[in-house]
Amino acid sequence: MYIIDRRRDASGKSIGNRQRFIRRARALVRHxxxxxxxxxxxTDTGKGGEIVVPVDGVHEPSLRRSSKGGSREYLLPGNKSYxxxxxIERPPSGGGKGGASADGSGEDEFxxxxxxxxxxxxxxxDLELPDLxxxxxxxxxxxxxxxxxxxxxxxxxxxxxxxxxxxxLARRIALRRPKVEEIAELEAQxxxxxxxxxxxxxxxxxxxxxxxQAKRSIAIPFIDPVDVRYRRFEMEPKPVxxxxxFCLMDVSGSMDEHLKDLAKxxxxxxxxxxxxxxxxxxxxxxxxxxxxKEVDEDTFFHARETGxxxxxxxxxxxxxxxxxxxxxxxxxxxxxxxxxxxxxxIDNEKTVSLLKTSILPLCQYYAYIEVGREPEERRRSVEPPxxxxxxxxxxxxxxxxxAMRKVxxxxxxxPVFRELFERKSNAATTGA
Amino acid sequence: MTTVTAGRDGPLLYKDSDWDFDTLSRIYDxxxxxxxxxxxxxxxxxxxxxxxxxxxxxxASTGMPLFYRHWSFGKQFVRNETxxxxxxxxxxxxxxxxxxxxxxxxxxxxxxxxxxxxxxxxAYGHNHFFKNNYVFKxxxxxxxxxxxxxxxxxxxxxxxxxxxxxxxxxxxxxxHALQNQGIHRYPGKRQMDLRSEQxxxxxxxxxxxxxxxxxxxxxxxxxxxxxxxxxxxxxxxRALLGLPEENVLYFLEKTAPRLKPWQREVIRIVRxxxxxxxxxxxxxxxxxxCATYTHxxxxxxLYDRGRITEGAYLEFLHSHTNVVAQPDFDDRRYYGLNPYAxxxxxxxxxxxxxxxxxxxxxxxxxxxxxxxxxxxxxxxxWANYRDESFVxxxxxxxxxxxxxxxxxxxxxxxxxLSVDAIHDERGxxxxxxxxxxxxxxxxxxxxxxxVDVDLxxxxxxxxxxxxxxGVMLEEEDAxxxxxHLANLWGYEVHLxxxxxxxxxxxxxxxxxxxxxx
Lengths: 432, 517
What we know:
The complex is a heterodimer. By secondary structure, chain A is α/β, with parallel strands linked by helices. Chain A has eleven helices and 13 strands.
């Protein structure tokens, strides 16, 4: 008989299998991430979480007897009241652990917990991205305290009780400080012996022990100065603290689910980008038809209104919100406007002038995304530029922090996004 | 109960729950002493202490220490790991492998008592069962399996190098889908090989020549002669191919026209491993019952002799009780019959019958009631039965009553389920027969056979599912498996589902979309 200690052997014999599985399931995971990010709030875009992969995609089929139909026998334990010939109402099917096969191996969906990083990876992979985020966004640095372990001296306010007690407990155990119960027990014994008039030697012995214990508990204090710990902070430079992102969207009848999905993806990416750069990112949703309103995310993406399209109303609303809540001196302001490009011709002039005189001076960056239908739905490959596009195109100049792009497919979003933001940093570096 | 004097028959094996390798070795010796006393006949054990992670690894490849690589094992790993990390599923305390030497994995987290229990359970109980049970003797080669797995692993890795992971994965996927149809269920069934087939053919011809008489030619042909001739042609063809054949993988390996030699070898590997596990499926309940009975006996005796402390004994009883718990059918925890519970209960019952039989036992089991030697009786049973025959021979009225077993029939054409038999005089036999059927593995696997193929014609492979009790195949799965089969076979594949009256109810067909060429 041998006993072999295998614990030091390299574990992870399954790594090869795991890789094969993940490679196999990757498409499914990616799809699941895409589906999940559809329903997520924009502010949750960069967070990991549980991803459910339908078991169907990694199902291993086998020839087995159906779980329905035919006649079958069950042998059950624990009969209490049935007698032969009783009939039992058929339990509702589908309830409980249905589908468990004869060998008891029912299957559930696969749940993966993805980390933030993995999620972003896959989220971006779906958009066919290389890597995000090497750009610098201009902004002044600021120092902020960050937790960095513990130290043995410091201000009372940063005393860490938990760490202190932990140290103290370790010391008390190590030095064998008598416990209160132990002393109490000795005392009780002593009392008993004394009242019952027990063995003199024994009484003496216990008294001696009690004395020793008392001495020890004084010599070994409950909390000693060496136990005390304080939280330690380090100052860490942080990029500029706050940014606000304005999502402007035309929600008139022509903006259907596909177009909104494209817009949402763009906003998600923008949010991801901003939240990597800034500590606080606020999002303001403004939707407009012929009038504009600030709304919450749900309404923004899911409600649909009808009415004419007057883009300038959204810009006015944005200016109002900025003045109310986001003083440009303190906030980095970004805006992304998504639209299918329709605007009332008479409004164009107003829009352009608002943009030029009021909005762009406030903004770090202003992006205009014109969303369109997928190629097969388009009737012509070359479309005439839309009203809004033409209007914006006139003011576009390299000096202005503004860009515009057309997006028709999910896959276009990242490249467009990248271009939009690269151009600025290029301008900033090469232009200098 | 005997009074316990610590160390009456030797020192305590261990004192508290910690253990080191000396303790483990001492524990093993203590267990072995009693194992020998029971005259258990085992393969030499090889005990390996492993970590949780390694246990998860082992789980993922059906418990085998080495296995070829495939994504489905990774899938198992991810599933088990998730369940384990979330605390929804504990890990088994041990894994034991039917090999010689018999590999027993011990989890490092086990307490000393658990290690004792595991050694008694696996290194003695399962090990004895593996070595002595006739199904294992007939079908598995304990000496060769580890080498064979090493060969399989290397072979498949080589193939991946040569032909690419994706190609090999495709063959494995297809073969896995058919692995339940890769089993010879009856020993001694032999495919005729080419040489003996030639010999037979020659003998047949010579025989025919000896009997030849030109006068037969003048006998007028009967009206149905042509059809008959065609029928005999078909019979001959089928006989040549050994049809009908239920071992689909075997048939593919030998006959599929378009497979490359390495692909045949991969199929063979899947088939042989599937065959290796087949005895385990047939003896699951007995095997667990045997191991549980053995650990109970050994732990009991260790305690009686003062080799383990009372605390350890209580700890043991706690795990043991969990293992053999059988929730009632209306309990939320009910998840089918617990093989540990049923096996252990039946074996304990046999022990009782041997030692202290009632009149009922004498009437039902005249051969064993009161023979006074439970261990030998059980050893004989462990050697010569499998789950199905064990139940049909030894499920006693006492156990049926104790467990409150009852038989419910669910006929899809009836509105309600009906209770057909309960634990009373009239029901015992029916319950027993039904439970035996329940353990008949070949009833769980659908009866699917290759019935015909014309290799010189369209090469369409004809399969037939013999429908029992009106239960058809799970349709979606059947379509997918058939697709795999068509890819392997390289030509069209037909599957008809028919009952014994010949009523054809469903036909599935598949064309190879991505054949292996």
